[in-house]
Amino acid sequence: MSASTMSLKLLIDSKHNKVVFAEARKDFVDFLLNLLALPLGTVIQLLTKPAMTGCIANLYGSLEKLDQSYLQPNQNKDSILKPTITTQITNPSFLLPNTKTPIKPKTPKLYYCPRHPGLVSDIQNSVCSQCRSQGYGSPYCSQEVKFAVTNDSTSTDTATSDQGGYVKGVVTYTVTDDLSVSPLSMVSVVILLNKLNIMDFGVLKEKVVEFGIDEGIKLLKASLSSKDALTAVFLLKDKDGAPESN
Predict the structure, then answer these.
(1) What is the pTM of this model?
(2) Beta bridge mates, 140
(3) Which superkingdom, per the lineage (predicted)?
């Protein structure tokens, strides 16, 4: 198994050719939850416009063709078409290709008044209201605030998110065909089998599959168009070899 793939154990109802659930580790669950953080523009990019249903792809394409001169001076097309993913995750899921390199935010410049250091402004040489009221001759916020970098936040983040991602890796998770996620337990499995009216355990088969970038894109598409997402990705194939959309 390469660094860009993970393995999943599927429990399959062979009679109906349907995935009952996947036995998944933290990495797969993190991938699924990361889908919720994707901006719509990124989703359209990942799926490619021909694969999109409805007319949202036309809207995306029209903005691509729109000349930059029609946009507000403080706007650019990439901020909409290729939005930066803002998330708490330090290591975004490796199973979706990066659409844009995140831009490190710049530290804002602030300026303070030498006579009243507690008063600051984001505009250099702006008038200090305190100096003006007291009649000083040079009532300006002219001195730039210097920021000191500490390691406190870094150490705290490391301590609380050693594993990264969204969920803890100390348990195994159940991911059903409709992408419902829960901790794996015998009770939850029995409840699920009863819900699906599976009485003959002989029809249940296990299958280990590899899940990589291609499957990640297919699962993203299936999650938007099917109630049987895992089945669509791993069991159903159309004439081109791609998952069918239910």
Answers:
(1) 0.63
(2) 127
(3) Eukaryota
Residue 192 identity (one-letter amino acid): L
CB of 140 closer than 8 Å to CB of 129 = no
pLDDT (tens digit per residue) in 176-205: 999 999 999 999 899 999 999 999 999 999
- Packed helices 213-225 and 26-35: angle between N→C axes, nearest 10 degrees: 50
Q: H/E/C letters for each residue in the chain?
A: CCCCCEEEEEEEECCCCEEEEEEECHHHHHHHHHHCCCCHHHHHHHHCHHHCCCCHHHHHHHHHHCCHHHCCCCCCHHHHHCCCCCCCCCCCCCCCCCCCCCCCCCCCCCEECCCCCCCEECCCCEECHHHHHHCCCCCEECEECCCCCCCHHHHHHHHHCCCCCCCCCCCCEEEECCCCEEECCHHHHHHHHHHCCCCCHHHEEEEEEEECHHHHHHHHHHHHHCCCHHHHHHCCCCCCCCCCCC
The partner residues of 19 in beta bridges, in order of sequence, read 12
